[in-house]
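If you are new to this repository, start here. Below is one unmodified record pulled from the training split, so you can see the exact layout before writing a loader.
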Amino acid sequence: MQAIVLAGGLGTRLRGVVADLPKPLAPVAGQPFLAILLEQLRAQGFASAVLSVGYRHELIREAFGDRFGGLAIDYAVEDRPLGTGGAIRLAARACSEADVFVLNGDSYVELDFVQMYGRHRETGVSLTVCAVEVADAARYGRVVVEGSRIVGFSEKGTAGRGLINAGVYLMRRNLLEEVTLPDAFSFEEEVLAVRLGQLRPLVYPGHGRFIDIGVPDDYARAQVLFRDWPVGTRGRLQEENDEPPADPQLH
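And here is the target side for that same chain:
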């Protein structure tokens, strides 16, 4: 398996609590957050990862080099901001596998990547999206699912428990080469939302916690959740007296 990690974030909302670093280098439980993501990939058998970098990318390269344990590391450097879509397209050109995972470098979700890969390949879809149930979906917006397919997205702002896009995708490597798009674009807004009927993405449930460290409150919460870093071999956070969360209900 091969992954793209979107690691070009500036971390603007964390500037009050984190030094002037790329957001994936924000320290969490004594490690750069990106190290936690790479350990999750390494533990689940990924062969390689391409880091999509931009802001102060030399710091990320200095921290991780070309290998993380048995995980080979390559870099796709943006010379200007390309948005999530442009960054994925650029990084995919450095990939070799027919299907590649895409992860956000500032969020973590517990899931079985091997099983997600198997479901994706069995169904022959061009895109699989990981969704996870959270206690309050207001910050993210909700995913609307019928059967095993995503059929819509609701606006942010509606409070309460809900299923959200966890920001982990498995897609055909050349998916973004097949449509006409500008150099810089948002994958979520200009591809996923507007081409939903054409893509008919498969939904795959993350069976555990999800955390996005992009705001100070959740960044502080991550220090507790990852205190027993490194993660287990299935990507599960190791916490004493912790009950596994229920599987999300996909309706």
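Two things worth knowing about this chain: The chain has seven helices and 14 strands. Residues 2-129+166-173+207-225 form a domain with the Spore Coat Polysaccharide Biosynthesis Protein SpsA; Chain A fold (CATH 3.90.550.10).
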